[in-house]
Amino acid sequence: MACAKTGRKLMSSSIRLLEDEIYALRVKMEQSYIEEATFSSEKVIGLSRLLDMKINEYMQFRRSYAAQQS
User: Fold this and answer.
1) What own/partner pairs with CB < 8 Å and gap ≥ 24 does 62-69 have?
2) Longest alpha-carbon distance in the chain
3) Considering only CA atoms, which of 62, 63, 36 is closest in space to residue 48?
């Protein structure tokens, strides 16, 4: 359960979940590149886009958390 005032436990578990997703997507994208032998395959591009979205989500989450701490 999270602290009602700060939400710290929820925040840290959410950040960890995003970090895990980002790591897994990166590994999957790297493996797809090795299999496809090109960055321009639809599979690699799709994974890259999804990875970009998750990284953006992570960065927004971190900015929101930093603003709450100020």
Assistant:
1) 62/15, 65/11, 65/15, 68/6
2) 50
3) 36
**What's the pLDDT tens digit per position in 24-66?**
999 999 999 999 999 899 999 999 999 999 999 999 998 887 7
Q: Which residue has the tokens 């603003």?
A: 67
Single pTM value for the model: 0.75
User: d(Cα 47, Cα 51) in Å, to the nearest integer?
Assistant: 6
Q: 4-26 burial by CB neighbour count: b if 16+ within 10 A, else e?
A: eeeeeeebeeeeeebeebbeebe
Torsion of CA 40, 45, 46, 51, to 10 degrees: 160
